[in-house]
Amino acid sequence: MNDKAPWLTYRPELKVLDCTVRDGGLINKHQFDDAFVKAVYRTCAEAGLDYMEIGYKNSRDQFPSDEFGCWKYCDEEDMRRIVGDHDKSQLKLSAMADAGKSDWRKQIIPQSDSVLSMIRVAFYDHQLSEAIEMIHHAHEMGYEVCANLMAVTLVGETELDQVLESVRESPAGTMVIVDSFGHLFREQVDRLVKRYQEAMAGTGKDVGMHAHNNLQLAFANTIEAIILGVNRVDGTMFGMGRGAGNCHTELLVSFLRNPKFKLRPVLKLLQEQMLPMREKVEWGALVPFNITGKYNLHPRSAIEWRAGETPDDFVAFFDKIIADV
Amino acid sequence: MNDKAPWLTYRPELKVLDCTVRDGGLINKHQFDDAFVKAVYRTCAEAGLDYMEIGYKNSRDQFPSDEFGCWKYCDEEDMRRIVGDHDKSQLKLSAMADAGKSDWRKQIIPQSDSVLSMIRVAFYDHQLSEAIEMIHHAHEMGYEVCANLMAVTLVGETELDQVLESVRESPAGTMVIVDSFGHLFREQVDRLVKRYQEAMAGTGKDVGMHAHNNLQLAFANTIEAIILGVNRVDGTMFGMGRGAGNCHTELLVSFLRNPKFKLRPVLKLLQEQMLPMREKVEWGALVPFNITGKYNLHPRSAIEWRAGETPDDFVAFFDKIIADV
Questions:
Q1: Judgement on whether residues A17 and A160 belong to the same structural domain of the protein
Q2: Which ipTM did the prediction report?
């Protein structure tokens, strides 16, 4: 610690990804209308963000298209309807493919034929082998690739070492810390960042941070990761994401000192698109999500509770969780 | 940094103060009905909190009683109506007195005649001399005393040194870091905590943390202070407090590992009292409060905006703030 104020400066290599459509789509089965997705796309570009994650590359067999919107699959024609003559040299587009839920050999086509620049491979530790195959495939197709080990707070020490070693040897460019349950706080973030960084040391690979806001710590944990040198961070507009939602992109943009980031277009999106969206679907650091975050649980029980008959009976939800854990 | 998990243990000397009625009362001119204040009091006791701040000891001349509720003055009979035969050995009661707004020589009576155990003296740096007189008076009357230098993010380095030196030499038992505008983030909290701790070193005085939630960082900054050794922390139920509100007591209680802290009674209060209260008055990390926090501004402009005709026109508010700063 010195007496200077490093927060007045910035690292040009720090990149922001907005995954509103991808993570937010988990609330509404990716049934966004085109106007919304176009507005998010325009906003990401105007705000100077580095990446926009526009959805999943997941399987139509597992997620039938009469139930899910097109951002569950990110077919080329759907993306082009939104982004037109997309300039890949500015805002880059990303899609996520889940191990075990994606026809990735078919769905991930050559990058030169796609508007996408990046594929993020999401996987649980037991899916490591498929994830490594997916990473190789996406890399061979010409994409930048991220490895997103989900729910890291459930992963044992030994398993984490194995995942990090395998990703280190893979062509993935970034390994992302994913706090799916919003369970982490500062000291735990520190240990994970250092561990991921040490595992990737000397490879030129980046470490990333994807936080959830169950304990109102998504932004703080993202800042913490940035302070420790993490150069890939995720946000969503107004925090839209499953359950408690994510780190708010507007807070990140407002905090970062790179003059290319602009807050005003983000604020415009918040009032024009996100407030009406929040009337239709629910997310945020509500009490039931505080509770699942505290107990390191998947948010599904809280989501079900909020959709039930007594969404505001926090004590009954707490008693149910305590009885179950 | 070691490999152990200190977050599984606790420091018995870490004390939690709930200031829902005091700070939350700034939203509704302290016009709470008795049932609400009684419920907060009962909850603080059941949750194992150490202190409840029940209001201000401020002047009836400046704050007429036809406009403000009784918690602006904390007269003995009003407090006794709520707390009855209060047991000072368990939950301790506190009131805040503002320099420049309090008839403190009259209002702060001997502690042996009061249900209060603690007085917190709130002051801006230019009011230091009166604050020191108030601290001496409250100490002589038998109270534990805290010194709360407000809006520390506006205080110059030289002025802060003077305040810390004067408080060090005073009979105050605790010096509180008060981030009135919710502007601080992690690295700034670190520097302030270390500075306050160094200034108080060897005196046995504690350092405290009072955070506001403009940037969704109140809980994170409070955790940060705790990690660095701060032993006095403030929260409010559901975060109720002026503007963006405060660190949520329920998050603190849930986070701290001292088994005496109980979350369940707090959850009960949230659903029975705080949800209906939030329907009547507004607080929280809303976008206009994000913006005043970012620019280190008093929240009053955002409070006025939210009460105006276009509360959700975030862009217009942003443009106005940018034009003014």
A1: yes
A2: 0.96
